[in-house]
## 1
Amino acid sequence: MLINYRKAKNYKKKLGYLGEKIAISLLKKKNYRIHIHNYNNPKGEIDIIAQDGLTLCFIEVKTRRKKDKWKPADNLKLKQMKRIFNSSMSYLKQINNPNIPVRYDLIEIIYNKFDVQDVKHHTNFFSQSTLKNKTYQG
């Protein structure tokens, strides 16, 4: 069986973008103020930057096609968390380092061809201190 990698990559991108749109809708329902969707800088990328009250949230969205033994969070590795953290530091510098609390969240989405099966919002999924205490998982 031949795999069309271009189609597979496009499908993955579309699924990821759909997951981010679902996450933004969820955050708006929770009264978060969305600042940026898909923030990029040389240090990395952040899916969503939003504000929850006085807290600035850097949010990673992980979407999977079906429910199985692997959770979407299993795809968030230490290396990616460090890139998100470094990118967030660049963003804070860009907005003149406001003295506000920050948080790193994860939103997991299970989506089949027709609808959302499950959504979980993990607030404070990781922090700078947890990055120091973890070892690289690949």
Note: The longest strand covers residues 116-126.
## 2
Amino acid sequence: MGDAQVVSFAELPGADLVVDRVYKGGSSGNAGDDPLARLLPGVGNQGGFRALGRHSQDAVRLVVLYTSGAEPDWPDALDPYTGAFTYFGDNRSPGRALHDTPRKGNLLLDTVFTRTHTGRDGRERVPPFLLFDKPGTGRDVRFRGLLAPGSDRLSGEEDLVAVWRTTGGHRFQNYQARFTVLNVASVSRAWISELTSGQTTGMSCPGPWRAWVETGRYTPLLAPPTVIIRSREAQHPLAADKPLLYLVYEHFKERPHDFEQFAADLMRRGYPEVDRVDVTRPWRDGGRDATGDYLLGPDTDPVAVEFALEAKCYSPDHGVGVRETSRLISRLRHRQFGVLVTTSHLDSQAYKEIREDGHPVIVLAGRDITDILKKSGLDTTTALRRHLHDNYPQR
């Protein structure tokens, strides 16, 4: 293997699964190029939900979850810093009941999460989940980790939830499932062989999986971030979401103070811990477009931490620079953090300065705005236009 981070198509059958290693697809131009079917025989060569073994016979040995990241309506998301993974099930279009899917993925999720919460006997019957994503173009896949259903941060009522979606005026349900990426750097070929033969906790079983089965204790793979400076592209919305952002910009571009109210409402909409946000009156603007309280601690005894918010309704192609961020930073008081909300992006130099100097400033750029809108059900231009017209009318 010429590159230690890439496994060639020919080497797939004997390869271990190493976190963040790429596994090459074939070059024949047909379904046989799929690397997962060659890497894990029996899981098939299509779909995002692939089980080895039949659920109808209660004989699922392992499950592959593959996410391409290309479906904005179903934003599967891995948080590498906390080891949390959110996955949406396989009922992604109207016309079927929640569990009535061709691959029976949602039915399997229901079974697995039920067993997760029924003690050791139940967990012993849960198959390991192997997460892969799409690292670029072509059929290559990247291994992202070994998943255990659930999380020690969530209750049994929160880790598998049926959510409603609307497409073309038709309502339907799908699952939103929460998993934990376990602290396992590699899955050995020996354990894969044991799993294939039905030995979930055999001699080659990784310690964190065995501990989860025996005790229910999660040992997440935590990867604390270095300094995060998102690229311009990472701050811009996905192509399918750009019409939402442009609609917001066009609605507010001549009314910056109304955009300040929209940004304040966005904070409340996106973060339930936000208790209040008060927008500064136009003729008394002291440099902060709004101030608010973010609640920490238990509901019975919360502590309010104040934040200052500045909103910039810029063209998505016009970045926010050092001058604007310096203005916000200069007005932060002791025990206060800042929030910058913009329909654009933060320029690299400004981003670098606030991160490397350790300024407590949160950046909500174009992609963050569209993500919050979508999670709030404002996921079409029709719904968003109606919302803007009703709540922020032209004067």
Note: The radius of gyration is 23 Å.
## 3
Amino acid sequence: MIERVVLLADESARYRIGGLPQVDRLLRLLEECFRAGSARPEVVLFWRDRPLARRGISILQPIEQSGGTLPAPPGNGRTLVLSTDLVLSRGALADLLSAASEERPFAILGPEAFPAAWTALAETRKQRRTGGSSWIVRGPAAIGAVERALFRSLGKPTDGVVSRLLNRPVSRRLSRLLVRLGVTPNQVSVSVFLLIVASLWVVALGDFVIGMLLFQLASIVDGCDGEIARVSFQESRIGAWLDTAVDFAGNLALPLALGIGLSRQPLLAADLRSAYLLEGGLTAVGIGLALLGLSRFVRGGTHAGSFKEIGSGAVDRWELPAGLRAVLQALVHLLRRDSFAFWFAVWAVLGHPEWILHAMAAGVALHFPVIAWWWWQMARSPAAVRAPDRP
């Protein structure tokens, strides 16, 4: 059991990576790692010489020491030795502590290693090994490369092909810039909403190319709020709700805007104008009903912030035949915003905006038989369809 954590602090404590000084980042990682534990370890911020100026550290309130030697930890337990030149991705500290391998970018020492001076503790970490979730900042010149690697680690397993190849590479670069400017995740969500409003307005006026390119841009920027929140420890319930609400509003209003824009085309027959308006309105209503029907069974039907989980996680909750599960999982990836926003922009550029509305209408139509089957299965045997909530 780890009784104490020693943070070896030197000039690297002042390095700002992902919007946070390194000493702040490590303290927040410790808070994240030991949050679930009943007994938190003592934290000692052990400075190489005199303490450097620092601000805003209020999570763990570590004991500070500069120079001299450290005694054995209370209770003669083990000591975790970290240093402020170590950068870890979110969740990596807990994973590395639980791993069987001894090749870690930190040291775990017994009471026999104390008392110890700063330099002696630094020697215990000379052969540190890093990997895909940990990096060493070897001087100010390495900050940029390490920060890029940290942002690359923020991708999600549920990211589709378009997100991995296009959206994430762009959003990560944008997120790095926004973090340096002090932009918050909620501010990004509001910006995405404004982009979507502008996109829908332009589409409704009949300029489908500019409108759908703006919608694709909103899809890219939409990844920034989550990236900034994770890298700078700014997650919040309000932020998750806001991100969900923006996604929901955009997806719901897009077919309406398309129907209006298509109906405004010159030299269009009156019955076709009415058909586009009707198709747009019914598709929007269908999207709302489909999401309502699906969310009824996500987190007990009361978790309002689970819109994204409806798409990426709901299929995993069903006990379905393997073939049907594979088809539905493929459809889920095609129906994610990163995929459909990209293809919608391509179709608009090719001069076929009506394909976008027809595709949305067809997607909604395909959802209803699945939802009806699901409700029927729930009526027969709820336990056979609905799996327990994930932790």
Note: The longest strand covers residues 2-9.
## 4
Amino acid sequence: MRGRPTLLSARATVAAGDTNLLERLEHLVALGFDEVGFSPVRVSPTSELENSEFSTEQFTQRMIECAQGVRERLLRGQNCALSNFLTALHQIHFGTHRPYPCGGGASYVSASASGDYYTCHRLINDGAHALGSVHSGIDTGRQHRHLDQKHVDRQTPCSACWARYLCGGGCYHEVERRGRDGCNAIRRWLNFCLESYAELSTRRPELFTTAPGRNHP
């Protein structure tokens, strides 16, 4: 494909009830994507699309089943196309320390149509997450308060969770709108990834010689 990037990634948003993730992964790879990441619908104006606590557990089970298939392919020397899995494996390998779930309000801000800055695009027009404007600049006082309050070690119950530096405390928007009903599912997924890393780092150590998203084996 002319002009094709070296790494072509897809992000697939999964609605409640859509559980055959391995089939979705294979379909997107067949279309030409090198990597595919899955993310569940957690907040939606249409409630039937949202993954509730129960369906979030189902989503996690399907993610684990999908990653199990990917892990077997990796052990056979094939490629990994599931970016959620690959990213988690590399975070574990390199000892990633995530004090925040994302760069919102730290390494980037989002601007509304009127030019006001907010922590992220999902929190546009939420006054609690306002951070200045294109006219007045970043409100550094509000930015520092945001970073101080949202540090994972200052979140409850995050500060006592073994997975906090791999999770970062959870998406600000989702936590405020839905609470922390997905924590058990996150820990279950990360536990699976830790077990997988123990096996893959022994049997295929070359997988961890490059950062994720860099033409990995």
Note: Strands lie at 9-14, 35-40, 110-111, 116-118, 130-133, 137-138.
